[in-house]
Amino acid sequence: MEIKKLTILGKSDATITMIFDNLESLNLFPEIDIINNLNLEIEKPVANPKFNFQLFNSLQGNTISAFQLGVIQVKSKLKVFENFGIDEEKFYTLIHKSACISSTSVLGNGCLVNSLVSVAAHTAIGNFVSINRNASVGHHTTINDFVTINPGSQIAGNVTIGRATQIGMGAIVIDGISIGENSVIGAGSLVTKDIPANVMAYGSPAKIIKEI
């Protein structure tokens, strides 16, 4: 799919760099507007001379633009999406060329899938899911909206991850596990039992540390 214009909503330098990397891997070089609505200091992200982009504090006249979220933390994604109120169907899912996604798996709108990610067969991924580099997702897994999976995480088969949950860097989730919505799994954790909603869990094996 050719993209002539991409509007990035919200501004995280790391996330915008990922978006640029994904676009370049696909040989896509659209005109880019970056909209900062989180009251962050306006600074240009890491320069990439192959892209023509502009920074704004408010949404411009982008009726023909595709959209992508410029933040990757769960709370930031929710805040930016709610602030703008743009229909989710207008958001573009951006998958790095090196990612391996099964043809039997389905991704929603506004996802960001970075380099060397692997998604196995018959997996359902919701809207605004971020899967960072070198993460793997097993077969028949369900990942709900606004989930963030950090680098190097390994999600086994038949796993369910609830809405707006964050999986820390290098975490491992074994087969058949269910993790509730709005929860956080700490970096390097080994999840061997179901985790309820609205908690932080950490360790090997992962244990609930606190409610959130």
Automatic annotation (TrEMBL):
Family as reported in the entry's similarity comment: Belongs to the transferase hexapeptide repeat family.
Q: Does the keyword Transferase apply?
A: yes
Which keywords appear in this protein's UniProt record, sorted alphabetically?
Answer: Acyltransferase, Repeat, Transferase
Q: Name one GO molecular function term.
A: acyltransferase activity
Q: State what protein this is by name.
A: Sugar O-acyltransferase, sialic acid O-acetyltransferase NeuD family
Q: Determine the domain of life of the protein's source.
A: Bacteria
Source species: Pseudarcicella hirudinis
In this record, what's one Pfam family? Answer: Hexapep
> PROSITE patterns annotated for this entry?
HEXAPEP_TRANSFERASES
What high-level taxonomic lineage is stated for the organism?
A: Bacteria, Pseudomonadati, Bacteroidota, Cytophagia, Cytophagales
